Amino acid sequence: MKILFTHSYFLRLDHKQWKAAKPYPPLATLYAMAWLRQQGHDVSLHDTMFATGPDELRSTLKTRRPDILVIYDDGFNWLTKMCLSTMQDAAFEMVRSGKEAGCQVLVCSSDASDHRLRYLKHGADAIILGEGEITLGEIVEAIGSDPDADLGAIPGLALLEEDQVVLSPPRKTLREPDTLPRPAWDLVDLSPYEEMWRAHHGYWSLNLVSSRGCPYSCTWCAKPIYGDQYFLHSPERVVEDVAWLKDHHDFEHVWFCDDIFGLRADWLETFADGLKQRRLDIRFMIQARVDLLARPEIVDPLARAGLDTVWMGVESGSQKIMDAMAKGITVEQVREATRLLKNAGVRVAFFLQFGYLGEDKQDIDKTINLVLELLPDEIGISVSYPLPGTPFFDTVKAQMGQKTNWTDSGDLALMYQGTFSPQYYRRLHRYVHRRFQTARGLKSLRSLARNPGRLNRSLLRSAAATAFHGPAALVEGLRLKRLEKA
């Protein structure tokens, strides 16, 4: 059968991410494409990453004339997990375009899993729940045999019957992800990705994944695809994927977009050995847990393998808030992980979020103080964001109004009753960034004063920025005080 794949993330419609200019191809989509191609189907991709809007799909539908349109989002990318309303509206329009073109329309995404009835009422023939490759293959086989086939017997689907959502039997998760073929990187045009990366950052980064899911249960973290399950590719398979990409593309950096990378020390040792044996000299970025990174047996092989940057889910400098989130980590582990990583020459980045239930001014101050004490290389700040299927969402659901999703990733709307006003948290976001950049700049100034011979562009830029960020932090602090009392 002729199958056209697309996804519902549009970089141009997410102003913050368009400015950041760090696009990654839709990896989960490419896995699904590779699986169906292996089954003998004619697959192609309409990549929306650089499209101006969902209407561009219409011309592709006319040209390709597919039997089936599959809107398959990249569930490995945190941007798609945010279920932004701009992207949801785009998905609905693409569903309509597919139906007008006479296609069967299938959708697999975190947002469709959470809002099944909306997608089905907009015309989708089926929502694929959970891990999608095997389910998708069975649907296509059934439709290929009979366009009017009853899909209800295929596990892992949500269907519409008499305006009600009906679920087929649950799908068992694929426990051996190595059985899937390599993602269909050859079916996506990677040139605009490379051009944007090189133009804005001077290098090119591509995305890979070594695992699926997360076995931990933070109260605010939505996991509509894998739940609490966790399955690993073999380290040998991941090394092979890196080698294949290096043979075909001249990139310098990899983002391993696992929810958690490096859960097992023995896996990491084999992975590091494999890269060295294949002479694959790459820098890479990961997301990982604080408690894992507080252990030398985890950090050492990561550094040996070429780890450049690690993003840790610190979230708060207050143990009270960490415990309320069921993070399962301690503030002392944050300190130890930061120390080990910096000693190993790894750049450290903190995910932070403000506004969680019960957070007061003292908790906020503890977070700011921890950042200024440890001075990571980067910070990413958000406000707590309730997503369906989480204990956090269930707690605040009654307080939420019409707005239940952010418009784009820079929205930062507090959609429930926090300790302070939504305006306070937006101002806090700016204030903490100014304080952080000022402290980083002062550190660079001290470094240059002690050793002028170490002068380089990065240190000089950081030191010079102090003249801007310092006064700006004072102004933002005064404005924050006024909002605190409002």
Structural write-up:
- The protein has 486 residues and is an alpha/beta fold.
- The chain has two domains: 2-167, Cobalamin-binding domain (Rossmann fold, 3-Layer(aba) Sandwich), CATH 3.40.50; 203-419, Aldolase class I (TIM Barrel, Alpha-Beta Barrel).
- The protein is 45% helix and 15% strand.
- The chain is built from 19 helices and 15 strands.
- The protein has helices spanning 15-20, 27-38, 57-64, 78-81, 85-100, 110-114, 116-121, 133-145, 191-201, 235-248, 265-277, 290-293, 296-305, 319-324, 331-343, 361-374, 391-396, 422-450, 457-485, and strands at 2-6, 42-46, 68-72, 104-108, 126-128, 157-161, 164-167, 205-208, 211-213, 230-232, 253-256, 283-288, 307-315, 347-354, 378-383.
- It has a seven-stranded mixed β-sheet with strand order 2-1-3-4-5-6-7, with helices on both faces. The protein has a six-stranded parallel β-sheet with strand order 8-11-12-13-14-15. It has a two-stranded antiparallel ribbon with strand order 9-10.
- β14, α16 (361-374) and β15 form a beta-alpha-beta unit.
- α2 packs across α8 (133-145), α10 packs parallel to α11 and α18 (422-450) runs antiparallel to α19 (457-485).
- The chain is globular, with a radius of gyration of 23 Å.
- The model has no long low-confidence stretch (mean pLDDT 95).
